[in-house]
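Need tokens for this chain, all 135 residues.
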Amino acid sequence: MFVIILLLIMIILLLSFSETYKNYHTIRIIKIAKTNDEKAKGLMNRKEKLPVKSGMLFVYDFYNKSQFWMKDTYIDLDIIFLDDKKIVVGVLENMKSLDENFKGIDKEFIYAIEMNAGSVECMKIKVGDYISLKF
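Here are the structure tokens for all 135 residues:
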């Protein structure tokens, strides 16, 4: 009887999770930027594309509206912005290499992920989706 109740609870939780996050994606993190210097550098000077469905994670200590630029970055990028629950709050697509104009989103975020340009479209990532991070 206990096992049946436990299974029912697990099924309810799973259904509730899938209703809350109709779209969820897994992204493999290949590099993490925590310090200000690491965040300022990002993927600068990288000339090869990242592996598919992978990216660099930027971790902030508090919610903010930091902006990004592509100075000395030789690959085009998409940037995904997440809240503390890893829900997508905004995206920037096809940031062009070497562009020194700052770009950001209007919402606050606590995580950002830089990925190859085209990743957001290919993975069909949109605002409200859940992102699972694989380290």
